[in-house]
């Protein structure tokens, strides 16, 4: 299966860094978060990627254009009056990466629609370019294939961080208690498996996948959830980035050995 990565947004909530580069190219653990996501899929045998770029899309193209050189031992030989490059050793993954400019202001569904021709008439994987997870992609695929619906998304339980208040109609606090497991919320963690029929549920560039396509799929019984109980961490702001840095140093990830 091909893997589609949404990487075109402005990343305004982390603009301390995103004013210079696309959010998925912000580094954690010395490499862009997008690279870590790709390493997860690569670990499970998925080596072909389609990146839906937009904001600062040239940055992503230039990074991958130089990736082979950065990961190789080379000799530059100018003795003949010409420039010859000899590659001695290269430490690059067997990836095929297609980077598509899907527009500056295109919404998530619209970005997906714009790469339809690159995907073809086959199921594919899709996720966002700003969240790390240790979900087992093989088990996710098997779950999707077993139920036969159009779409599967991975869900995680997000812990409620604050105490819980019971407030009456007069704005008086009736009770207070600390958070409990029952207060956790099930949220969309991305890491989806989609059938090509999903494109029938996307209209145009203004289509927000999460607000239009997913509710429509759900209303027709075509959206299933795969529950993941392991690690998931998004990168919305600098605090999230710090948390990701800590995860990469304290948590074992198969692709980060």
CATH superfamily membership, which one? Spore Coat Polysaccharide Biosynthesis Protein SpsA, Chain A
Quickly give the structural class: alpha/beta
Strand order of the largest sheet: 7-4-1-8-13-10-14
- Strand/helix succession: EHEEHEHHEEEHHEEHEEEEHEEH
* Principal-axes shape call: globular
In CATH, what is the class?
Answer: Alpha Beta
Ranges where pLDDT stays below 50 over 5 or more residues in a row are none
CATH architecture level-2 label:
Alpha-Beta Complex
Tally of structural domains: 1
Number of strands: 15
Tally of contiguous helical segments: 9
Give the helix proportion (percent range): 25-40%
- Termini distance? 24 Å
How big a fraction of the residues is strand?
25-35%
Mean pLDDT: 90
Describe the main β-sheet briefly. 7 strands, mixed
Core attributes:
alpha/beta, single chain, 7-stranded mixed sheet, 257 residues, Spore Coat Polysaccharide Biosynthesis Protein SpsA, Chain A, two-stranded antiparallel sheet, 9 helices
Structure overview:
This protein has 257 residues and is an alpha/beta fold. It has a single domain (2-153, 188-256), classed as Spore Coat Polysaccharide Biosynthesis Protein SpsA, Chain A (Alpha-Beta Complex). The protein has nine helices and 15 strands. The protein has helices at 15-18, 33-43, 57-65, 67-70, 108-114, 116-119, 137-147, 209-219, 238-250; strands at residues 2-7, 27-28, 31-32, 48-53, 72-77, 84-90, 96-101, 124-128, 131-133, 151-158, 164-167, 173-177, 185-194, 223-227, 232-234. The strands form five sheets. A seven-stranded mixed sheet has the order 7-4-1-8-13-10-14, sandwiched between helices. The longest helix is centred in the last third of the chain and has 13 residues, at 238-250.
């Amino acid at each position: 299966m091909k893997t589609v990565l949404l990487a075109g947004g402005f990343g305004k909530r982390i603009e301390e860094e995103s004013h210079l580069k696309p959010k998925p190219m912000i580094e954690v653990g010395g490499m862009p978060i997008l690279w870590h996501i790709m390493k997860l899929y690569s670990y499970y045998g998925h080596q072909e990627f389609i990146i839906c770029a937009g904001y600062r899309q040239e940055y992503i193209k230039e990074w991958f254009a130089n990736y082979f050189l950065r990961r190789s031992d080379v000799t530059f030989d100018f003795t003949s009056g010409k420039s010859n490059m000899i590659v001695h050793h290269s430490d690059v993954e067997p990836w095929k990466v297609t980077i598509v400019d899907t527009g500056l202001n295109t919404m998530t569904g619209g970005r997906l629609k714009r790469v339809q021709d690159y995907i073809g008439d086959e199921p594919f994987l899709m996720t966002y370019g700003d969240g790390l997870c240790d979900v087992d992609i093989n088990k996710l695929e098997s779950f999707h294939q077993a139920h036969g619906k159009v779409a599967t998304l991975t869900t995680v339980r997000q812990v409620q961080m604050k105490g819980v208040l019971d407030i009456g109609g007069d704005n008086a606090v009736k009770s207070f208690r600390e958070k409990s497991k029952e207060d956790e919320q099930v949220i969309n963690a991305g890491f989806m498996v989609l059938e090509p029929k999903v494109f029938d549920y996307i209209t145009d560039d203004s289509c927000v996948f999460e607000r239009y396509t997913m509710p429509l799929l759900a209303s027709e019984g075509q959206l299933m959830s795969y529950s993941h109980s392991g690690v998931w961490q998004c990168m919305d702001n600098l605090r999230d980035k710090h948390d990701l840095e800590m995860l990469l140093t304290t948590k074992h990830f198969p692709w980060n050995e």
